[in-house]
Amino acid sequence: MSLRRAGASVLSTAAIAAVTGLLLYAFLAAESERTVGLVLVGAVAAVAAGLRSRVLPRLVGAAGPPAVLVGLGVAGLVLVRVFHDDPFVLLLMARALLVLVACLGLHVQLADAGVPNFAGAAFFGVGGYTAAVLGRGGLPHPLVLLASGAAAAAVGSLLLLPLLRTRGHYAALITIAFGLLFRTFLEVNETLGGPQGLKLGGLQLLGWSFNDDRRLLGVEFSGYAFYCLAAVALALAAVWLVRRVERSWIGVALDAVRLDETAAACFGISIGRWKIAALTIGNALIGVAGGLSAMMVGFIAPNNFTFQESLVLVSILLLGGLGNLAGLAAAALIVIWLPEKLQPIQEYRYLLFSVLVVLVLVLRPTGLIRRSVRRPFGSVAG
């Protein structure tokens, strides 16, 4: 019986990875707007048919979330191999993955604990500027990335007192004000480059520079391929961490705080403690993603961390469906990739993107995929 279940899990994982990989490959390889549109229509039809026939839920259930995660990671590695010498596609993949990691941080804050954060881009910038400053001091870059997350969490602690004393729209306004103040601080601070920003070196690991093109196993890989691999590893680690938090008693406490603070307090749950935990974990993930992104791009400036960028992160969270990691990943790919693939139609691509956002919010108020129901003993359905 166990062998049969193991075989079903392997086959289900392989099927999910193959279908996902083919859809992503078709979208990334598409050159014309018509091809992009056909791929999107095909992807929506395939997902809708899978949900309606219950084939997709059965595959996910048979494989299990950890196996699905491994399968998607393998699909990502295959795509890196396929587009090994295409810097634009590799950069697009890496950026989408890093944005996904940042949105996972917001997911812990808003979807799990109900704490609004409209300053995601600011904490992304804290991580990037930390990497720019510490990267010049000879500190090993893995430690620089960890320091980027720690710095974002530490700066976020400045908002703890006002956020704990407010709720709802007032708490959201506090984060908006912080984002605006952060950008102003960067623009007037000449030590951090002022409006011109800072340049920084690429990621290095054990003397290996990720900026250099390398030939491995007879294949010439662009430097962005290695950043993409690092982003894949970071995204998988972030998803694993978020799932572990949600499936533990910590996730139960965060759920209680989000659903009803008064009832949670009556049962002895410390509201302040768990809000602080959610803010710290979320900002740390955003900071690490910001640090790696800055190293990949090689330049950082205040204009990269506007309120508009924060709204993009929040829109990804809402479009994917609050509380659903699969929907979050799909929304991140759509929001980051679609405008770039529709560049030939110039400014009209933003009009199309805006219409898509409105349609999703009107037709699917819960997002692309609705939140799954928590099962007893701290596990999460699906």
Biggest β-sheet: strands ordered side by side in the sheet: 1-6
Binned strand content: under 5%
Query: In terms of structural class, how would the helical and strand content be classed?
Result: mainly alpha
Helix tally?
A: 16
> Which assembly state applies to the chains in this document?
single chain
Average pLDDT taken over every residue: 82
Helix content: over 70%
Instruction: Extract low-pLDDT stretches.
Output: 377-382
Number of strands: 6
Shape: globular
Distance between the termini: 22 Å
Q: Specify the biggest β-sheet.
A: 2 strands, antiparallel
What is the rounded Rg? 21 Å
Query: Number of domains in the coordinates?
Result: 2
Write down the secondary-structure element order: HHHHHHHHHEEEEEHHHHEHHH
Description:
By secondary structure, the chain is mostly helical. It folds into two domains: 1-82, no CATH class; 86-317, no CATH class. The protein is built from 16 helices and six strands.
Question: What would you say about this model in short?
Answer:
Helices cover 72% and strands 4% of the residues. It is mostly helical and 382 residues long.
